[in-house]
Design brief:
11 helices, Rossmann fold, 4-stranded parallel sheet, 224 residues, single chain, 4 strands, 49% helix, alpha/beta
């Protein structure tokens, strides 16, 4: 079973849109969360992995299972062993295989992944990482409009939260992970070149008509 595509980024950055494009271009994600009021085209996050593996792990180390507050500190990020990574790999692969994976390219999308990225790296050392980016001010403003983002009541609080994610991105880059950063704001503005490059890099096939139908600029403007 090949290592996956791992899609992450601060929540409210466009991770769902990016994962959706990867999905419709041929990536296998298993049983993923569907549309809701805040992600009207779907969340594309594997429900079993999120609810039975990722959230319980964050809770076990004294952090918010929603990835808001408190977050793992730098010590906790690296306080994992190779054995834990191997166990993590087996658990994730077991879920994906049970949900119908046979072969080919598969993915997991999770905004919280970057908060404890080293566990994922130990589990899947040759994974390709897609880090989804958005301007910090826009993320903070979107968090304030989103009902399930409850940790902070001010823009300043959310900006500090974004900084933690940006620190994780720097850690990942410094560690030499295979990373491509994408900015969904570009495809929203009509420039599809970066997303096309991403799909090619991942070994998938760009589906022009499906992508055109999927990307909705109105949703990314604040509700997505």
């Amino acid at each position: 079973m090949i290592d996956p595509i791992l899609i992450t980024g601060a929540a409210r950055s466009g991770t769902s849109m990016t994962a959706g494009i990867i999905h419709i271009c041929g990536g296998f994600g298993g049983d993923t969360a569907g549309p809701n009021i805040h992600n009207q085209k779907g969340m594309f996050e594997n429900l079993e992995i999120r609810n039975s593996i990722t959230k319980p792990y964050l809770k076990s180390i004294g952090c918010d299972p929603l990835g808001q507050r408190p977050l793992p500190n730098s010590r906790q990020v690296f306080e994992v062993t190779q054995q834990q990574g191997e166990q993590w790999r087996k658990r994730i692969q077991s879920v994906i295989q049970y949900q119908g994976y046979k072969d080919g390219i598969w993915y997991y999308k999770g905004a919280k992944m970057c908060l404890f990225w080293y566990m994922w790296h130990l589990a899947f050392p040759t994974a390709k990482w897609v880090i989804v980016r958005r301007e910090a001010d826009q993320i903070a403003e979107s968090c304030l409009r989103t009902s399930f983002m409850r940790a902070y009541k001010t823009k300043e609080g959310w900006l500090d939260w974004v900084k933690v994610h940006e620190d994780r991105f720097r850690q990942m880059s410094k560690a030499g992970l295979e990373i491509m950063e994408v900015w969904p704001s570009k495809i929203i503005a009509g420039d599809q070149s970066e997303m096309k490059q991403m799909i090619k890099w991942l070994g998938l096939e760009w589906k022009q008509n499906l992508v055109n139908a999927f990307v909705d600029p109105a949703l990314y403007g604040g509700k997505k």
